Structure formats: structure tokens, C-alpha cells
Amino acid sequence: xxxxxxxxxxxxxxxxxxxxxxxxxxxxxxxxxxxxxxxxxxxxxxxxxxxxxxxxxxxxxxxxxxxxxxxxxxxxxxxxxxxxxxxxxxxxxxxxxxxxxxxxxxxxxxxxxxxxxxxxxxxxxxxxxxxxxxxxxxxxxxxxxxxxxxxxxxxxxxxxxxxxxxxxxxxxxxxxxxxxxxxxxxxxxxxxxxxxxxxxxxxxxxxxxxxxxxxxxxxxxxxxxxxxxxxxxxxxxxxxxxxxxxxxxxxxxxxxxxxxxxxxxxxxxxxxxxxxxxxxxxxxxxxxxxxxxxxxxxxxxxxxxxxxxxxxxxxxxxxxxxxxxxxxxxxxxxxxxxxxxxxxxxxxxxxxxxxxxxxxxxxxxxxxxxxxxxxxxxxxxxxxxxxxxxxxxxxxxxxxxxxxxxxxxxxxxxxxxxxxxxxxxxxxxxxxxxxxxxxxxxxxxxxxxxxxxxxxxxxxxxxxxxxxxxxxxxxxxxxxxxxxxxxxxxxxxxxxxxxxxxxxxxxxxxxxxxxxxxxxxxxxxxxxxxxxxxxxxxxxxxxxxxxxxxxxxxxxxxxxxxxxxxxxxxxxxxxxxxxxxxxxxxxxxxxxxxxxx
Amino acid sequence: xxxxxxxxxxxxxxxxxxxxxxxxxxxxxxxxxxxxxxxxxxxxxxxxxxxxxxxxxxxxxxxxxxxxxxxxxxxxxxxxxxxxxxxxxxxxxxxxxxxxxxxxxxxxxxxxxxxxxxxxxxxxxxxxxxxxxxxxxxxxxxxxxxxxxxxxxxxxxxxxxxxxxxxxxxxxxxxxxxxxxxxxxxxxxx
Lengths: 597, 190
Prior knowledge:
The complex is a heterodimer of chains A (about 600) and B (about 190). Chain A has about 600 residues and is of the alpha/beta class. Chain A is globular. The interface of A and B includes residues 137, 193, 318 and 322 of A. Chain B: Pfam families: ACT_AHAS_ss (PF22629), ALS_ss_C (PF10369). Chain B: It comes from Neorhizobium phenanthreniclasticum.
């Protein structure tokens, strides 16, 4: 900390200068934002420097998702800058999105001058009040001398423990005021927030012993492995190699274990693979690593994996025993706990017998043989699954990053695109935010200018943040939008079909824009394909283009996403694609509804 | 395997709650900074927890610490969640479930006390009866005119409930209660 008797003159600066200095001291290179009255002093400072690049978005929601994509693909903190009032309220969706998916995000917001707070001033809102439930923590900084310390603390809280979004609300007069810059403290001043990284060794030892006794084990991993850093993924792979256990992952954790690995069962959950869900249901020891027993994962909670003993590794104590009771909770960072786990497994005096899990693997292979992601190919229309298979085949081996919007296309992407590395897959899991994928892809492309970044989108989702095409053009970000266009909000339609007598209330995309012309209007490249025979060639053309592309891929309109655990059902009650014939699906639909198809 | 033959009904599965709810008293030590109470209360409303009583005051001036005492009720798993969720709030230093702690110490309950101010208005014979009863409850007169008394009464919530009930027919005008302050018995600190 600065010694007040020995003040360097260059410690004195305006609040706006403090903001820029603190960002640089926290290693920030890019921020995503949109100017406005209450942040003009900060924008003036941005103008007068070139160490930090500001990416101008077209809507604050885009700034937030771009910062999320940036954060998830780099492991760094994403930074967004918005003005007061509508700037802050538009940031709420990405903040909640980052909270639910544990993405480190620092949002700086302008606020009306302190003297006007509470007076219903122009573009005033209670930013701290509005964002309190959708952030890990937030601050209103009323004293310029506290500003630097708060920003340093904001970065620490965003990226340590269970990562999450934070908001620093800075009134305009504080941005103008002169104060003292305090450098980043070596040891954090805030004593009430000290997350624990190391797991309890006794609990880890008990876990390892339980794992060694397992006859039907499974590893169930999640976004926590990705958040813990590349070393955690490496250790996970080592653990799988040592134990020989089968492994599945949530939507958020894809890539932590390679899809080409022989122990990989595919994603689990509502639209996960048959083998992963059946294995979850029938296992005797479950090791949950950095996942949170979300309702899309567990299905009917009182029928969830009824005969297993459960180990749960999580850095957030509130995740333990929240939805599912676990037998051995281990509080700590996934990377640190896995390191201990690998070491203790190696040190086991009696390794499990060679054939201990042989029957289990035989059973798993029988489930695998059901090929639950299979679909009927068509030579006339492009099946959405086929489109993604081809997209994957033609992009694998490249430096590829995939983002998605939310809906059927998102689930198909998770099923058919294979990930070999963590941080390559950006999707809105917890909040399920349509409109996430395109700005997130922009954030990824900013962080990885030479990479191939593809937003797998739906025709409905893409229209939620399409304005960011202007951003992509402005900064020469050659993001590819691959729209699986079925002219429906496909997932909504699927649920209406299953649950609401096929009354397709408001789920048809009326007045669809011409996506090719739309791309051209922005100065991007528009492409169209509705013929399976032309698909490969067109995808290759899309990859070769060094500009943003909207690829309007017309797919079978009424394809549904299977397999599926219908809500309220258990893991072993999956609806499989070969059983989900039109007739079977229609069984749940009354005669009147059927006439409406 | 024949899931599609039964209507699924809802997008979410709602399991019936079978465990019994119990009332617990929590002590929460927080940094005394703007908005901290809103964070705690917002957590309870946002996650659908109950608040039966809430008191808050600065307890350690130099350390800028306040102590919040919350009486809540829920099933054992909900109470465990409440504690874990409270601990997640950045300016929260410690959360102690006094009810659990009392059980660990082999005691029935923590000490729980409340203060109330009770205004009773009346004339003549009723005033004598009011005073006599107040004395029995060890309520102190802190203000009076020929028409009214204000009593200060300290004790368990049940005692105050009873006192207020008795005062009702005697001209009860107004009641103000502090909510519960609580602490575990014995020499150990929080």
C-alpha cells in the first residue's frame, strides 16, 4: 500500500484516469462497451491511450456476452463498460448469464453525479440495487480515493473462488474528481472474502478409497473443470487414465475431457446420450467434479441415481447438498483437489482388481450400441444433425471455437460437435439466453484474431443480437454465423408438440428476414444452402472467407431433438430417437391438435 | 422407455416436501457497509426463505462489524442452504446457527430475548389493573399521563406475546417490538 508520507505526484489523478490505470494493472487488454453521458470522462481517457482496446458494440447486452465469450475462451476476466440507466439495465441479462455459468466478468457502469443520486435524474437507475441479485458482488463508489482499491477488489472477487460477475458503479463527479491511485495490494484487504482452494485431505482420501471399491463408477464433470484452468483438465485426463472410469460431462464442461477419448460417454442430461444417462442412473459410485446437479441434468430428483454413493468436488459450499444429497463433499478448487486425488490414487496400497469394472463396461457398451444420437438421413433436405456433423468434419483439426445461441441447434451442436480441448465451447447453459452466441463469438474472435470462430445459431435466436454484425464489420472480425434455419423456434415447437397438444402458439418465425441480404446490408457475406449435396462445398467456402458470414442453412423444418428425458422423468426413462417416431410423439397429442400440424 | 405415453405436464418437476420444517436462530456477522442488510434480506426474498424475526445493529465499532440475528424456518436441508448462501455474500464474515450450536452444547435453545414498548390507554379502575399486571410481568413504566402508560418489557417472545394479549382488553393502543437478540449460553464466544 502507498505510504502517505511518501506520496508520488503521479499517484494523484482523476477518477477516470484511475479507472484506466487500474484496468491496465489488472492485465486488461480489451474492453467491450457503449458510451453515454455518465461515462464520458472514462471514454475521454480511453481516447487518449492505446494500451487498452475498446470494442464498440451496438447494444450493451452484446458487450456483456462478448466479454463472456472473451473470458471463457481465454480464462481471463471479461470487462464491459456501460453508461448509467438504460446502459446498466441492458447489462442485466449478461450479468445474470455470467452468474449462472460462473464466468468472471467486471462491469463498470457510469452513474449520475452523487449529488443527483435519488433525484430521478436523467438516465438514473438504482444500478447497485438492480444488479445486486445478478452479481457476485457490487459497489457504488462515492469517494474517488476508494476507486482504485474497489476495482482491484472487483477483479479479485470476479476471478477467485467460484468466478462470477461484479459491477462497479461510478458516479460522474467521482470520474472527474482528483484522488490517490492505490496499487494492487499483495494481500487482499477484504478479510470476509477468502475462498479456500485446497480440499480436505481426509475427505479426498475417503473419496479415493470409495472410488477404488467401485464396480460401476462414473465421473460426472462440469464447467468447474474448465473454470479451474487447463491444468485441471490435464489432471482430469490423468485421473481417467489411471482409474479407467467412464466419464460424462454437462453442457458447460465439454472439452475438459476429449471427445475422442475412449472413456467418453458423451454429454449427459435432458438431451444427453443414452449411455451417459443410463450409467448415471445405474452407477454405484458417482464422482461429481465441478458440476452442480442442475435440474436439466438430474431429471426427476427423487429417482436420480438411486443406488449410488456420491462424491462432490465444488469450490462453492452452497452447491453441496443443494439439490442432491452427497456422501463425500470435498470443498475446494477442482485443479487442487484433482492433484491430491491423482496422487492418493497412485499411492493406494491395493489398486482395484483388473476386471472389477469389466461387467460395467460391457453394460455401457450395450447402451452405446443403441446409438442414441442417430437420425434418419435425407438426400432431399438437410437434416440439422447432418449439417452439424459436416460442419464438425470440415472444421476439425483447425483452430476452431464454437459458440451457440439457445435451443435445438444448441443441443445438436453439443451432441454432434466434438471438443478435444477446454475453452473451445461457449454456450449459455444456466440462464439459456437466446442472443448469447453471436456477441460471444465476437468476444472470442477479439481474443483469438487468427482462429475460426463459428456461432451455431437458430433462425429465431440470431435475431436477438443481430445488431452486433455492425461491430464485427467495424473491427474486421471474421465470425461465421451458421444458422440452422427451420423457420421455427424449434425447441419451443418441440415442447408444444410434446406438452401442449401441438398447438404451435407463436413459435413460427413469421416475416423471416432474407439472411443473405441482411448480411450484405451490413457489408458481410451472405450464403444460402438448402441442398445436402451442396453443403460441404458451401461450408468450405464459408471457412475460406476472411469476412463475417451469415450462412443460412435451411434444414428440415420439423426435426426434433432426441434423445430426451421428458421433464419429470428419470434418467432411465429417456425417449430415444428410434422410438420417437412421428406416431409416438403424436401419442401425447390429441386428435384436434393433430389436425393443426 | 414409454415416457411419451404419459403426459409430462410441466417443464419442471416439483417434488412434494416431506421433511418437517423447524425454526432456527442464526447469528450473522457482517461488515457494516452500505447495502449489506439489503443483500441479506434480498437473499431471503430471492430464494424464497422465511424471516420470522430480524434484528441488526453495529456491535463492534472499531472493526466495523454488525450482527444480524435472523429467526427463520425451514427443513434441515433448506436451513443448511440458507447458511451456505449467507456465507457466499462477500461482506458476510461468519454465520452461526445458534439453534444447532445450542444442541451441540447439550442445551435446549440459545438465549433469545426481545424488548417491547407497549402503550396502554385507559381511565379509572382499569389503570390500577393495568399497573398490577405490568408489575407481575416486570414491565417498567417509561412514560405516563393520567390517560396512558408506556411499558418497557423484556423477555422471551412468548412472554411478550402473553403480555400484549393481556393488555388488549385494558386499552392497548400501540406495540413496538425489537425482534430477537440471541446468544448461546456458556463462556465460549461466537
